[in-house]
Amino acid sequence: MSASIGARMPSNLTDKIHAALETFRIELPSWGFANTGTRFGKFLQPAAATTVEEKFSDAGQVHALTGICPTVALHVLWDLPEGIGSCSEVDKLGTRYGVRPGAINPNYFQDQIYKYGSFGNPDESVRQQAFRHTEESIEIAKRLHCRDISLWFADGSNYPGTANMRRRKAWFTELLEASHARLAPDQRLLVEYKPFEPAFYHTDIADWGMALLLAKAAGPQAKVLVDTGHHYQAQNIEQLVAWLLSENMLGGFHFNDRRYADDDLTMGSIDPYQVFRIFHEILFFEWENGSRADVAYMIDQSHNLKGKIEAMIQTVTVAQELFAKAALVDHEQLASAQAKAELVRAESYLQDAFSTDVRPSIREWRASKGLPEDPMQAFRSSGYLEKITRERSAKNMAGITSYA
Ligand code: PSV
Ligand code: MN
């Protein structure tokens, strides 16, 4: 049952929450600290990170205050401009700022050569170039001791009849297999999907089924990455999560929220129950199997309007709350209600857990770890934002550009 308002939470529930929090870590995206925008333009922020060092510094702040973000995802083109040559510098930054490099993201969408695709480009030499970039990204991951190489392809087409979809599928299969062959035994390839954007007629890896087939074809260390913003309206995300778990093919998440398309809104800001249901499927799976699911939780958000560090602290805090709520579902009772098709009783276990106020318990856990009970408040009173605003604003405001 949910703890009633004002009453102290029973200690068995507090223990469940604390045990769940011990296991929950979420990765920050380096690009969430830099100035980014929409296709109509950017609203520049005076405190945005302008260098890789500043991204590490900001991510380090979020980790220092929340204690649950020990890694930062890197985009090769943006964060390792010299490729392998940038590794030692990035490695040092990780040590200096207390956050290690996390998933390595090759970039197949920004260079002019990728206008008609990367792994799916009809030009063999472009496909080879995209493959060499993948090889280099895997090597970067090895040098930085990163397990996951996270692949998102913008490949697709805008007009019917202009792309040979079967041919492109074959090229993807071949190059993903070849990429897999470059992995060290403990590394993974994560294959992300997205139904549209930047292509608006067809996208080569449009949904989880396509990503699953390609990952299976690539090899046993390839898994699917679910970006919560990359679905059609009304897609039942927790169901596909349950299917991927049952196939041992769920590699990780890019969390963000959306209302219309890939909106990059703050996780849980539109539909927190959706995130709760995803976490629930994972925790229910773990309870049934008696072992942890090996899933990487990552944030993929870059805020144009909200302050970047505050937005990230807010996201991490919400993620932690929704995970803690999901940990409160009574799995034994739920399983028995499901088996007897006692529908209202079964559903109520989710509703009870979701409506429980887990925040006091999370504050207790933070205090027990020597972390600030309220990370947002601690950030606001730390003076960090004022300091970086002073240091960075001239550089940031010089970067104003127009859309066209
Ligand atoms: C594409 O929309 C995506 O979700 C991919 O994960 C990219 O790496 C990321 O956004 C940043 O552009
Ligand atoms: Mn993503």
Q: What does it look like?
A:
This protein has helices spanning 11-23, 52-66, 76-79, 87-97, 124-143, 165-180, 208-218, 237-246, 272-289, 308-327, 331-339, 343-354, 359-368, 375-380, 384-397, and strands at 28-29, 71-75, 100-105, 148-151, 156-157, 188-192, 202-203, 222-227, 250-255, 296-299. The chain is of the alpha/beta class and 404 residues long. Helix 9 (272-289) links the parallel strand 9 (250-255) and strand 10 (296-299). The protein is globular, with a radius of gyration of 22 Å. The model has no long low-confidence stretch (mean pLDDT 96). Alpha-D-psicofuranose (PSV) binds next to loops.
Features:
15 helices, binds manganese (II) ion, five-stranded parallel β-sheet, three-stranded parallel β-sheet, alpha/beta, binds alpha-D-psicofuranose, 404 residues, 10 strands
